[in-house]
Amino acid sequence: MLNLELLTPELTLAVFAIVVILLDLVIQRKGWLVVVSIAGGVVAAGFTIAMWGGSSQALFNNMLAVDNFALFFKLLFLAIAVLVILASVDYVSKFSRFQGEYYALVLLSALGMMLMAATAELISIYMALELTSISLYVLVGFLKDPKSTEASLKYLLLGAVASAVLLFGMALVFGFTGKTQLGEIAQVIQALSLSGVLASPGLILGMVLMVAGFGFKIAAIPFHMWVPDVYEGAPTPITAYLSVASKAAGFAIILRVFYSAFGLPSWLSLDWGLIFAVLAAIGMTLGNIVAIPQTNIKRMLGYSSIAQAGYLMVGLATVGLSPVVDILGRSGLLFFLASYALTNLGAFTAIIAISGKLDSDLIQDYSGMGRRAPLLALALTLCLISLIGMPPAAGFMAKFYIFSGAVQHGLLWLVVIAVINSVISAYYYLRVVKVMWLGEPDSEEKVPSSGALRLALSLSCLGVLLLGIIPGYVMKLAEFGARMFVF
Amino acid sequence: MDFNYLTTIIFLPVVGAILIAFLPGLTFRKIKSLAATFTFFPLALSLYVFAIFDRSGGAIQFEEKFSWIPAINAHYHLGVDGLSLPLVILMTLLGFLVVLISWKVDLRPREYFAWLLLLETSILGVFCSLDLLLFFLFWEIEVIPMYFLISIWGTGRREYSAIKYVVYTLFGSAMMLAGILSLYFATGSLSMVEIAQGGLAMIQSVMPVVAIFFLLLTGFAVKLPVFPLHTWLPDAHTDAPTAVSVVLAGALLKMGGYGMIRLCVSIFPTVAQQYALILVILAGVNVLYGAAVTLRQTDLKRLIGYSSISHMGYVLLGIFALGQVSLVGATLQMFSHGFITGLLFAMAGLVMHNAGERDLRQLGGLARQMPIIAVIFSVAGLAALGLPTTSGFAAEFLVFVGSYSSTIVSGIQVYTILGVLGIVITAGYILWMLQRVFYGPVLKQFDKAKDADILERVYIFTFIAVIMLVGIYPAILTDVIKTGIMPIVGLLGG
After folding, report:
1. Residues 6+ apart with CB under 8 A from A182
2. pLDDT of the residue at B202
3. Is the residue at A486 inside a domain?
């Protein structure tokens, strides 16, 4: 039995991506490309929702898992892709060529991420990861100006190194367990005694190398070097896409691999839990401190995303330290990812609109934006407040939720570091707010924005407020999505 | 009870804020009348609540409880008791008065009044929340309006002061968040009522209770402020616009004192008893250090700002003397200080506005040009130093009597007497300030300075009326406060 119907969302997306490329060849009014791409996202999301709540199943000899966890992430990626496409309209309409390819690549990378969330086998994990990465390498270099090209090259080279490290780690794990399927790996490891595992340091090394390989995707310290340059050089919608979707996919895969394959015995999960706890502490501190002197808003958000990855890793550490049955760590992570995605997309969408007019990403040029474009400035302010983690925005609830899980599993020290970091981060986020509302405008010209952009911005801001004030429903979804298929 | 009084009181100002911010085509006049309307109704409602408040029992009244976030067991839970009701009145009354005080603010009025109303909502929310998450949410929301109000409409080094305020407050609330999370983990509940009733028996973890106590206390101590976490206060006060100084001194600082009583003392009575001595000593330092530094200020607003530190020392003394009388005194002192210092700031604003000068070395002889302001300022000053028939006297008297006779902290008499000495210094700086501003030779450059106009007279006389009313008949408040304090005293076992 192939059970192909379980892959409907992915297949739909692939078909739509191909249709977009072909359509680009024959039609003149490129607006239709946007419509078709969004339709693809929406239809795929519809199929995903229809599958929601069903029992967990596996496909292709347990290579792919169709469980709540995967469905939650698929929905998240589709939502992000649709919002990114909406936010790209202004930006892409300036391109003379390759508009179809742009949208198709966004859809294809979303497809890769959807597969990443579902894969439960080392080789298909690698394939899904590469499908995502290669689409993103191209998208980052789409502008073809020196900065964009440099960013793309840097991303490609470092990404290739990370992939190599990941593969090496996978090879080691395979070498010591003889399995590639996560559930089977778990069985082999659980059958080993403590001394048996200690006698095979290669297995531990493989695990560590996999942390490094995935760490690149989520921009964890010390694998974060690419972030500021790539964020600065890439087209802004793609920066937004990278900062949320690529990160969420990285976390999805880490959760899946470490939870299913290395979740037991508990001393092993304690080990990687502590690794993530230390990475989290260093990541958020470094990200926040280096973000302070930045003058380019995209670079600043790049460092901020490193810091946010640190907060997210608090959730990973919680998963490592908590018993397997406890879902608080995972659901906290899922909720945080959802709220972070909405927040960062909102912030970047506002930046796209503002920078499109200013032709500059420098924070000082945002001076007086509060008067030139009050609604855009208000939306950006809300998103920045959410990034600090202050109410009434989503970021506050996300932090509360993820930290409450951490405190329950003895990570009070990490939570104290994290909350102090939030204070540090307030300093540079508020600097942007200050420039926008306190500075004098350079000119009185209004900042125009297209309907698509406004739609994307209002959707994200609405989401940020909703998750910040009545998060109950999404928290339920996250709890539901935290239930993973166990082989 | 069908009508949700508290929800209405809390959220009316924010509705006003939204209308002011987004209604198209509002004139300056309309903005102000909207702001006045949306602060007047909460005031009227809260006075009605005060009138029908049941003074016989100690229970929480006007409760509203709905499930909010089931995943973490958080509720939308509001209620007032004798402890919070006076503070709610304080805020709604000040909220209305500061709109009048701001009547002449014409720089970006839309944003100004919108932020001011949002600030009122968040402070009211803090006083009414009975759920820790809700409490923290309102506690944090307050930072944003304050940041904008100080940094846009302030004077001097306003941006520096604003960011300093934000960083200090966020540091305090970060500690508090860690404390709340630990408490939630330890008890599995976010309800203040449940946790206080269950007492420490609910805490089933190895988490040291003392650590939670001090995490929470740090958050409140930044706000109150307690030495040595006070340095944001003079800067914020000096550079904030008049109305914001009034809210800051009048209501915001009280969030710290309220939090200490509501969370630190009610939930951890034994820990509070254990560490009371340290806090009482800090209170003594607050009073004397604050007063001593006030003596040598030359900026009118900075002087009043520092005097707040000294006066908040009495609140801290009253709270951690942990006696019934002292706790009632501390709560009354919070209320009374809100009006007295609020009035002082309002008057300082008038002097500044009408004379165009706030440096004490340049001012002088203003009693001639502005007789009404001089008289009212003097009355406010005398109230600040605790003259009988003003609320300052009633409150400080209760604090001193209560702490002197407290049996919980050994040697508290020494610190109480030190605190009383603080009053002498207070008399010194208040009288000296009045003398330097209003008396002495009449200066020519102020000949054109005007006295208070009709509107200004309305609000300053309202302040005076409240101060005198509470001073002459303190039972109007202490009867209510007692119903809130009695259950806490019961927990303390005395």
Report:
1. A120, A121, A122, A256, A257, A260, A261, A487
2. 59
3. no
